[in-house]
Structures are given as C-alpha cells and as structure tokens.
Amino acid sequence: MVSTIAPPVPGGGRPRPLGYLFELGSGRLCLDFANTVDSRPTGSPRELLPTYAELLDWSRQSGILTREEERGLRSRAERRGAEASRALTRARRLRESLFQLFSGPAAGRRQSPPRTLLACLTTAFRTPVLRGHRLLWEDDRTRLDFVIGPVVRSAVELWTSTEIDRVRVCAAEECAWLFLDESRNRSRQWCDMTVCGNRAKARRFYLRARSGARAEGGRRRR
Ligand SMILES: [Zn+2]
Fold first, then answer.
1. Is 187 helix (H, G, I), strand (E, B) or coil?
2. What is the torsional sign of CA 167, 173, 177, 182?
C-alpha cells in the first residue's frame, strides 16, 4: 500500500478509548514526535515513549498507521522483543536529533542536520516497487521501525522549507516543546495556551503580586 501521512489533528489528535492520549498540536509530524518528552529543561524529564507499545500508540494516533498495521506490528513486537527494543532506541535517538535540529532554528541559529538524522535518511525514503506497468514508492510497513520513515520525511520537508523560520520553542520554562508558529503576526509563544500560556500568566501574576507586596513593605506577605 502506498503510504499517506494524515496531518496531525490540532488539540490532541483523535480520541482513543484506551492508551495514552498524545498532544499533537505542534503543526508538523516531526515536531509532534520531538514533543514526546515532557519537562525536557528540568532535571527530571518525563519519557512519553517508555516502551515500544507507546511508540505504536503515538504512530496510530498520528495517523501514520492504520489499526490493522498497528495490530500487526504489536503482535510482531511481542514475538521479537529485542528487535522492538532496538526500534524504540532508534526512534528515541531520532527524536533527540530532531529536538537538537529544530530548537536551533527556533532559537535563531541555523545548523547542520545532526548525524543521527542523516543516518535515518536511508530508511526514510521508500523502496521502488514495480507493479505491472506502474512504479510505486512504498514503505515497508511491517518493519518495527516503520515510524522513522514518515517522521524523517516530515523533518526533511520542514528543514528544507521556508517554514523553518516559524519553528519555535515553547516559552514556558519547564516545557521546551516545539511548534510551528502559524499565527498571522508570528507572535505565538506557547505550545498550548491553555496549559503553558495559562501557567506563564499565573506565574507572572504571582511575581507581580510578590513584587507589589515587597514594594508595600511586605504588608501582604504572610
Ligand atoms: Zn509548552
């Protein structure tokens, strides 16, 4: 089957009855994938892909796997534990490269793509298959590291497009999620206004209240 990449659904992807619900609001598949770590700048980042099962959950929710493909890979991973864990390690390494790559431009610094990303390019591009009189480019959708292909392609597309200038790092101190700023005046600061934006506003309010209390000689302090 020729692969199609469904665009990520803003605001958290498709609801799933079971499993973790990932945030897929960054605007690009590769950035959503880079955002599978929470609280990256803190001393204790939270891994959102602790096992291969969550990698499949993410792939399914992102729309790059059908339910049947997801089931097939899940049962294959159960039979081939070592291969699944290698696929997970590769995917996580790719994710860290993506963060490195896109947090650079986001901070105003262009840089060369990291070696891990370049190494993934060979798996990212499809294999030519001749079917009758038609040449098709197909993904091997039974590979346990299948997810790497669509994610790398999305990264290369973004990296080589003018949209690269719109990649931002969330301004919230503990977040550092990446997103594409598609606002008209390019002023979006937070990955999600309802989470990081409100947290930042609450923090500013707290700091203002505290400095106000100081200016008034600490009368409001308990
Ligand atoms: Zn954020």
1. coil
2. negative
Q: Tokens 């990296």 belong to which residue?
A: 159
Distance 105 CA to ligand 1 centre (A): 17
In the predicted structure, residue 192 carries a pLDDT above the cut 70: yes
How far is the C-alpha of 144 from the C-alpha of 83, rounded, in Å? 7
Q: Over the chain, what is the mean pLDDT? A: 80
For the beta carbon of residue 211, count every other beta carbon within 10 angstroms: 10
Q: CA dist 45 to 2, 41, 97, 185, Å?
A: 36, 7, 16, 32
pLDDT for residue 2 is more than 50: no
* The pLDDT value given to residue 92: 95
CA of 194 to the centre of ligand 1 (A): 9
How far is 120 from 155, CA to CA, in rounded Å?
A: 11
Using pLDDT thresholds of 50, 70 and 90, give the confidence band for residue 93. Answer: very high
| Cβ neighbours of residue 138 closer than 8 Å, sequence gap 6 or more | 1, 2, 3, 126, 127, 129
160 against 114, higher pLDDT: 160
Q: How far is the CA of 177 from the centre of ligand 1 (A)?
A: 5
pTM recorded for the entire structure: 0.77
Instruction: Report the C-alpha gap between 139 and 134 in whole angstroms.
Output: 16
